[in-house]
Amino acid sequence: MTYPDKYHLTAEESRFLAKKKWDENVYCGMKMENRAVTFPQTKTILDGINVPDVRLDDIQAILNMRDAWRFQLEHMSDPVTLDYLCRLNGFVARNEALSWGVLRAGRVAISGTDFLPPVPTPETVEAELSAILTGTSSATDKALEAFCWGARGQFFWDGNKRTSLLLANKLLLSAGAGMLTITEKHMEQFNTLLLGYYDTGEPESLKSFLYENAIQGIDL
């Protein structure tokens, strides 16, 4: 199944969309990790105001996503490479993992599934990323594939879903095809489909769900 672009925005419109929605996307990243923060708390922290009843590691995670988005907006024209992906993770997982910004060198397990992702090698990750990027499909199709690939591949010690979310949004925004954000009302179904994808390796149900429920844009 292919997924045509829902939006065809100019570079200026894409940047406006990203600046308008990035705080919601940061909150999406927090809920993907089941962190106990609300959207008002997330927005308050992003505004630089202390929220006493939020755990320090949750504040760190929010600020990490903030810095990743700042980097992304400043480097929207950069090519997507393994180095770019590692730089995103370097922001996302800073002080959260054994190491960040580099491919993991050991085994990891994923909660809720028996699937054990293989230890990644630069050659394999680069080849798989290149195959996604050089296909003839739409930017939306590539973004959905990249998100699923990164989430299941677990290439880093931590922050894989958030890093994959940022990667997908890089592809979408660069092409004027909108943004990928899973809202709170869709999070439970997203998690169910994601676990099913981990088990089967078949991404179509997850991609279809994201296409129908998580692509946002500007209706002109």
Strand order of the largest sheet: 1-2
How large is the radius of gyration? 16 Å
**CATH class category name:** Mainly Alpha
* CATH-derived architecture: Orthogonal Bundle
The average pLDDT value, as a whole number, equals 95
Contiguous low-pLDDT stretches (5 residues minimum) are none
Provide the domain count.
1
CATH homologous superfamily label: Fido-like domain
CATH level 3 topology: Fic-like fold
Overall geometric form: globular
**What is the number of strand segments?**
2
The computed structural class is: mainly alpha
Give the end-to-end Cα distance, rounded to a whole number of Å.
27 Å
What is the tally of helical segments? 9
Beta-strand content bin: under 5%
Q: What is the helix/strand order?
A: HHHHHHHEHHE
Kindly describe this structure.
The chain has a single domain, classed as Fic-like fold (Orthogonal Bundle). The longest helix is centred in the N-terminal third of the chain and has 22 residues. The chain contains 9 helices and 2 strands. The protein is mostly helical.
